[in-house]
Amino acid sequence: MDRGDEPHRPLLKKPKGRDLELEAGSRAHFEDAAYYSQTYADRVEDVAFYVQLARKVPRVLEYGIGNGRIAIPLARHGVRVTGIDLSRTMLADLRARLRAEPPEVRARVAAKAGDMRRVKLQERFPLVLCTFNTALHLYEREDVEAWLARVREHLAPGGELVFDISMPILEDLTRDPRRAYRTPPFRHPTAGRVSYAEHFDYDRLRQILFVSMIFEPVKGRGNVDNQSFMTPLAHRQFFPREMEALLHYNGFAVESVHGDFSGGPLSPTSDVMVFRARTRRGVR
Ligand SMILES: C[S@@+](CC[C@H](N)C(=O)[O-])C[C@H]1O[C@@H](n2cnc3c(N)ncnc32)[C@H](O)[C@@H]1O
């Protein structure tokens, strides 16, 4: 190719050093555990699904255990959960929530701060979970490869990897980043009454959706601090066949992909993909 034809920004060029935008996008949303819990309080189908699945095995490894939204119900059903999470804030909240549980439930949960691409435990599990979009914080192929290598190291022979990630929603990916998508004001557990807006900015080359969540305290409603603030969230967008290929070329056979937590088929309108996979024969 003539050098003059080279694309301005090569597709596979990666930022050098730490990418602060991605670091913020994988951490900031998990810095306020009270807000996290309030926001996802109604998300219950995934909890029921993972409980049904995990109660068949004595113990599981959960990547992205967070503050135990799924792990605590698992432990209440007798499952021993080992969890890994990057966020010390979420893990502190998990410990606080466990203090309110009976001692036998508390004893079933062991959580460790760390990165799912790196942590090595000297233990194997019949079931490895990576729950609620945690895998969307694996931004580059190398991140996925490192994570799947850790999964292989932690799976017992015949064991299963189960994870759920959002299906890319084309409307979200084509939104004008300058446009604010507003919801009615609500009571934020730490900031008081706020108005709320989201901006969506999709990076088509890196396949990363940057969401900016903007909170503006509503004045005159007893708010102690009237500062507005923005929380960034960065989610890698994995298309169904892309994830299937990543699993395949990292030694896994996909056994099923469902489009909801009730075993429904993946369809063009599904907003979630639930992957179930095992290591391929002969792969360690
Ligand atoms: C959406 S939350 C899910 C938490 C919990 N499983 C739930 O369902 O509520 C995603 C979690 O992944 C964690 N996380 C993000 N990147 C990670 C990484 N590289 N290694 C370990 N945990 C990570 C975040 O700190 C966060 O707690």
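^ S-adenosylmethionine complex. The pocket of S-adenosylmethionine is lined by residues 26, 30, 40, 63-66, 69-70, 84-87, 90, 115-117, 131-134, 137 (CB under 6 Å). The chain has a mean pLDDT of 93.
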